[in-house]
Design goal:
Strand order of the largest sheet of chain A: 1-2
Shape of chain A: flat
CATH superfamily of the largest domain in chain B: Periplasmic binding protein-like II
Number of helices of chain B: 9
CATH architecture of chain A: Orthogonal Bundle
Helix content of chain B: 25-40%
Strand content of chain B: 15-25%
CATH topology of the largest domain in chain B: D-Maltodextrin-Binding Protein, domain 2
Distance between the termini of chain B: 56 Å
Order of helices and strands of chain A: HHHHEEHHHHHH
Distance between the termini of chain A: 61 Å
CATH topology of chain A: MetI-like fold
Order of helices and strands of chain B: HEEEEHEHEHEEEHEHEHEEHH
Radius of gyration of chain A: 25 Å
Number of strands of chain A: 2
CATH class of chain A: Mainly Alpha
Number of strands of chain B: 13
Structural class of chain A: mainly alpha
Oligomer: heterodimer
Chain lengths: 294, 238
């Protein structure tokens, strides 16, 4: 990147380091931090939406819907994460391609499964076989988001389901006495009050989600763990201008600092949200806030 | 004249459609220098990068490179995420049951041990090998103590920190570590594997034949041997 980097073998100390830290590979490492942050930023609201949907289904009065919601919560929570991430993603990808194949190539005669091979027509490939590499990577990223959202959505659904039941019944009865319909009671009384009960559980999930992002790597997304491992590995002078020994410890130390800092920031923010949500609530926390102000 | 023009246009469109369909995605590991690795610029480089690009040029194919974990490199091929595996993969009967191979592009070479102690008796030592490699299968079959790792890097690190007594891998890979941190390559060699070939889906016979022909043409004009010598990956073809 800098002009003095032309021959790194002659450099030493900080100049060498400044060259080393700006090679293309390192830049990919820095960018992968944004991949992780983007994943969190997209996954968290999506998982919350899945959770909200799951909780609403689970407390539905229509039998089959309630079974569907409770089934989703029970099954996804029961399957080990690693199994989910290894098999589900390939299955999900194949399911999408299978559906597209049925729609786009109705007169295809060969079987889709030939021995071990999974073959759909070219037009049904997802992404198309001739799509540029970034499309493939983006597709992989969103498959990852969807998988994370489904897994964490199930946990969030359980948390929200519990939180909805924790709202004092007297509140709901009062709403009914005022003549609110069921829907109005749900959206105006129940939902605004349930967050304070849900937040401890949801904040746990958020912390777990932050630490689960290295699973991205299992899904073929080149995340910070992939690059830390790749960059930290021993580099022989035959294949690089910047040979070094086994530096994985230092790279993983950077990851440790990143994750610790990130969870610390999260804790501070979550504490603030909790304070705000507690305000005016009929809970011990709300009562304490009221007394402190008075 | 007009008709002629029309025909050429249609031909051109058909040709471009055919071209567009013929992007071949080449799957590799990117962690096994000198066969394949990520260079300073963050691109895939190495013997197989150069070989693959040349094969694609000869076969008139448009090729794109993809990295994938070694562990799941075969499942992702059969489910269609890429079209070939070109990752220093030895041709074995077990793998041949799941996927097909082109003809070998490097001859079978012995595997070697890298250890801290040059007088080590490997039969009683703890041997490290990468998961799902011919070397791991060999050590397991021989009944020695085996520890497996997901990446080649970790197998060597295990010897360096004493977790394993020796690592068994391809000579070309371990050669770069010989003499480093007091590690040496042992005299004992194991004759395993049947040469390295490209993995192709069993249903993709046409692609396999295309690459077979391209590999043959590189063998015939000596350019394959030149490439093998340049990257020092194996012995050359006679």
């Amino acid at each position: 990147m800098f002009s003095y980097c032309a021959d790194p073998s002659t450099l030493e100390g900080l100049t060498w380091l400044s060259c080393y830290l700006t090679i293309g590979k390192q830049i990919s490492f820095y960018l992968s931090f944004f991949t992780v942050l983007a994943l969190l930023a997209i996954t968290a609201p999506t998982a919350l939406a899945f959770g909200f949907g799951g909780a609403m289904l689970a407390r539905s009065r229509i039998g089959p819907l309630a079974v569907l919601g409770k089934g989703y919560i029970a099954i996804v929570r029961g399957v080990p994460d690693i199994a989910f991430f290894l098999f589900f993603v390939i299955a999900l990808d194949q399911a999408f391609e299978y559906l597209r194949h049925k729609v786009k190539c109705p007169d295809w005669e060969e079987p889709i499964r030939q021995g071990n091979d999974f073959i759909v027509c070219q037009a049904a490939k997802l992404p198309l076989g001739n799509a540029p590499q970034w499309v493939h990577e983006t597709y992989g990223f969103f498959l990852a988001v969807l998988t994370f959202a489904i897994v964490f959505g199930a946990f969030a659904a359980n948390v929200l389901y519990g939180a909805m039941r924790a709202v004092p019944k007297a509140q709901l009865e009062t709403a009914e006495a005022y003549g609110m319909s069921q829907r109005q009671t749900f959206w105006r009384i129940l939902v605004p009050q349930m967050w304070v009960y849900a937040l401890p559980g949801l904040s746990n999930l958020w912390m777990v989600l932050i630490k689960a992002t290295p699973l991205l790597f299992l899904l073929g997304v080149e995340d910070i763990v992939y690059w830390a491992r790749e960059l930290g590995g021993t580099k022989s002078p035959r294949f690089t201008d910047y040979p070094h020994g086994d530096w994985r410890m230092w790279y993983f130390l950077v990851l440790l600092v990143f994750y610790l800092a990130f969870t610390k920031v999260s804790e501070v923010v979550l504490d603030r949200i909790m304070k705000r949500l507690t305000h005016g609530q009929a809970t011990a926390g709300g009562e304490a806030q009221r007394k402190a102000a008075a | 004249m007009k008709k002629l023009l029309m025909t050429t246009t249609v031909l051109a469109i058909a040709a471009s459609a055919a071209m567009a369909d013929s992007v071949v995605r080449m799957g590799t590991e990117g962690a096994y220098a000198p066969w394949n690795f990520i260079n300073d610029a963050g691109e895939i480089d190495g013997f197989e990068r150069e070989l693959g690009d040349e094969l694609c040029a000869r076969a008139d194919l448009e090729c794109e490179w993809v990295t994938n974990e070694w562990d799941s490199i075969i499942p992702n091929l059969v489910s269609g995420n890429y079209d070939t595996i070109i990752a220093g993969m030895s041709v074995t009967d077990e793998r041949d049951e799941v996927i097909d191979f082109t003809q070998a592009y490097t001859p079978p070479d012995p595997s070697v041990f890298l250890a801290m102690d040059s007088g080590l008796d490997v039969t009683s030592g703890v041997i490290a090998a990468q998961t799902a490699t011919i070397q791991a299968a060999f050590v397991a079959n021989a009944g020695w103590t085996l520890i497996e790792f997901a990446t080649p890097e970790e197998t060597v690190a295990a010897v360096r920190n004493g977790e394993a007594d020796a690592v068994l891998a391809d000579q070309s890979y371990l050669a770069t570590f010989d003499g480093q941190d007091g590690m040496v390559i042992l005299d004992r060699m194991e004759q395993i594997g049947g040469g390295v070939g490209m993995g192709i889906r069993e249903s993709d016979g046409e692609l396999r034949e295309t690459f077979n022909a391209a590999i043959q043409s590189m063998k015939d004009d000596g350019s394959l041997n030149a490439l093998i010598e340049k990257w020092e990956v194996s012995s050359t073809w006679q």
